Amino acid sequence: MIHDGQPDCPNLGYLVGDGLYHPGDSVHVPDEPVRTLLVPAQGSWLRLDEAIRFARAVDAEAAYPIHDAQLNDRGLASVAGWFAETIPGYRHLAPGDTA
Around 23, how many Cα atoms within 13 Å sit in the side-chain half-sphere? Predict the structure, then answer.
């Protein structure tokens, strides 16, 4: 539920290849090991605390943000700072960067 009884939208997550997990718009922890996590960084349905707890529960070797396009520079710096301090293996990739 997002607000006042409004239902969430259907969501699909994908475990790709050798352990890359794209959770879509969810914070569902998969049953299988994950080497690389794409962690939602922002959404109308998401609190930063939920994203951090999710990433810690998945316990991937590496984590990269997704869903950060609605953040301005100040918000992105704040989220990236919290993630870097609390999620082992976290690294922010700017547009055009590669892992």
Answer: 26
For the whole prediction, is pTM greater than 0.90?
no
Q: Which of 75, 76, 79, 95 is nearest to 87 (CA)?
A: 79
Residue type, 24: G
- What number of H helices and E strands is found in the chain? 2, 4
Q: pLDDT tens for residues 18-55?
A: 899 999 888 999 999 999 999 999 887 788 999 999 99
Residue 50: closest CA among 25, 75, 19, 33: 25
**Residue 11 belongs to what H/E stretch?**
none
